[in-house]
Amino acid sequence: MGAKRVCYYQVSDPNGVQWSVVMGSITRALDAMNVDQQQATKWSTKAAILRHTNTDGFHGHGKDMYIFHSSSEPQKRYFLLRHEHVILEADTTMMAVLEKSELYKHKLSCTVEGTALLLGDYSARVAQATLLNGKFAGIVLEVEYLPVDDVLAAEPMLTAFCHTLHLGLAGLNGAAKETTDGLKGPDEGPTGPFGGTFVPIKHVYDTFGLSNQHTGKHSTLQYLYLVSALLQVCMS
Question: How far apart are CA 158 and CA 101, in angstroms?
């Protein structure tokens, strides 16, 4: 597993946005980078939030449990206890144990489904995020730099990839503009269709005692913050 960056596509005004057009533009920009003509494969992740049945003495999200799994690691499940700053790794049988205990009840879930494309030293995954009720939640981009699993060492390479994708999107929409940070912020003007841009998920690995070596636990934390960001956009 290499080091990964997770982003979501943000527009200043979601009213009237044709998300199929956005997805089409992103796909074309990635295809232009696919010089080896690699075939895309299906890919998905799912993040669920469970609420403890006994919330006495806790406030807000104190007793929520976050569960994450990816088609990249089909036999693994990751359980995050935000209040305790703990992430646990287990196999799929743990889900059955959790259900029988009846300690938690389902609160919400977010499914991210799309395609993965191998682009040289990178794997790019672009997908649509949907909530449990089928509501569209956004477009997600996950970029993995395969040769390196150190999140700090891989950062310049991930930035370079996102910069190239940004220029490709901007070029498709007649708004090409050189930048130095690889990802434009939401206040730096339009880059992609409908005046949007990819916003990276900020992470706090050290708070959960994680090292710089990227693992499934790092992805779990990234997607926790991704779901939180998408929910804020949906409710705004």
Answer: 41
